[in-house]
From TrEMBL:
Residues 81-96 have a biased composition (Basic residues). This is Uncharacterized protein. Residues 40-55 have a biased composition (Basic and acidic residues). It comes from the Eukaryota. Residues 34-122 are annotated as: Disordered.
Amino acid sequence: MTGPHEGPSKDKKVKKKVFLGEGDVLNLALSIGQTQEDSVQQKKEKNSKTKELTKVKASASRKHSERKDKLAETKTLLASKRAKAKKEKAKKRKSQKGSAALPSAPGSEAATKPGRKSVSFA
């Protein structure tokens, strides 16, 4: 009586393990090599996309700094224009004060105020 843990009975033939033939081994090696090349190619593509994104980010940051520079230049230009306008306005005021302080022509009056009279309450 043969149990499940005993070896095969003498009635049944034992199948021998068949290894791959030479051609099959070469085909298997080629398919493994192709799979590895495909995975390497996918990694390269992924890395190149990452590098491109990094380059895009770098150029975007440069654009940001260029925008900052442009903004600073514009602010400086506006400040200089305001300062120039302020100086011109001050010159106009000075010239108006200067013309009012000059003695008026002999036929016109009213440029100067009459002097105040002193009043005492004693």
